[in-house]
Amino acid sequence: MMGRVVAIDGPSGAGKSTVSRLVADKLGFAYLDTGALYRAIALHLREKGLTPESGDAGIGAALKDTEVHFRDGRVFLNGADVSDAIRTTEAGHYASVFSARKPVRDFLFSVQRDAAAHGDIVAEGRDMTTVVFHDAWGKFYLDASEAGRAERRYLQLQQKGAAITPEEALRDVRERDIRDSRRDIAPLKRAADAIYLDTTDMDLEEVISAILSSL
Q1: What whole-number distance in Å separates Cα of residue 69 and Cα of residue 71?
Q2: Residues with Cβ < 8 Å from 203, sequence gap 6 or more?
Q3: What counts of helices (H) and strands (E) characterise the chain?
Q4: pLDDT one-digit tens code per residue, 142-196
Q5: Which of 68, 112, 126, 205 has the maximum number of C-beta atoms within 10 A of its C-beta?
Q6: Residue 131: DSSP 8-state
Q7: CA proximity to 127, closest of 41, 7, 210
């Protein structure tokens, strides 16, 4: 038996994480940051010496007996809180790279589905509406202009103390868009029944209001 799921997809920098947290708070739902789960797995694989060139067998072996959870806004990898360690440009890069690999997606599919078995959730990511929660109670696709998303990414990383330039943020957004939309497994795309919201010229409250009024 699954709880109600509000699934929110969209490209990097569209504001999914912030919006999802606040929507979950308004609804009294739990918040599932799937991007954090992928970052944690990427951190784990890199610590195990895996690279983007590693084979699926090696990646699958490295994930055996691995545990990752997202609880109360914190990410735990094999019992350790890695919430801060995963918020780096490098972790984001490898999360995007490894997320295209089948062993990683298979591993996290059950983790994500299990989250909904414990109650109502708001889940955001790249394939929440198309694959993981294709049967979600509410489905949304958040988008924004490339320039707007790059600016958000730059400000977000700056606030976290990361050394990054506006040009690097733009390049990061473009590279992620290419990887996320062109990967063979669960590429980023808008579900036919997902409500589309272009957040470029919308403030936070307008986006949240639009989602809540559509449920």
Answers
A1: 6
A2: none
A3: 8, 8
A4: 999 999 999 988 888 788 777 889 999 999 899 888 888 888 888 899 999 999 9
A5: 126
A6: I
A7: 7
Q: pLDDT tens digits, residue range 86-126?
A: 988 888 889 989 988 999 999 999 899 988 988 999 999 98
Cα separation, 95 vs 91, in Å, equals 6
pTM for the full predicted model: 0.86
* Domain that residue 27 falls in: 5-214
Count of CA atoms in the C-beta half-sphere (13 A) of 82: 23
Which among 47, 43, 53, 59 is positioned nearest to 94, based on CA atoms? Answer: 43
Residue 159 corresponds to which tokens in the numbers above? 């606030």
CATH number at residue 154: 3.40.50.300
* pLDDT at residue 39 is higher than 90: yes
Q: What is the identity of the amino acid at 118?
A: H
- Lookup: tokens for 180: 């996320």
Q: How many domains does the chain have?
A: 1
What distance in Å separates the CA atoms of residue 132 and residue 34, rounded to the nearest whole number? 11
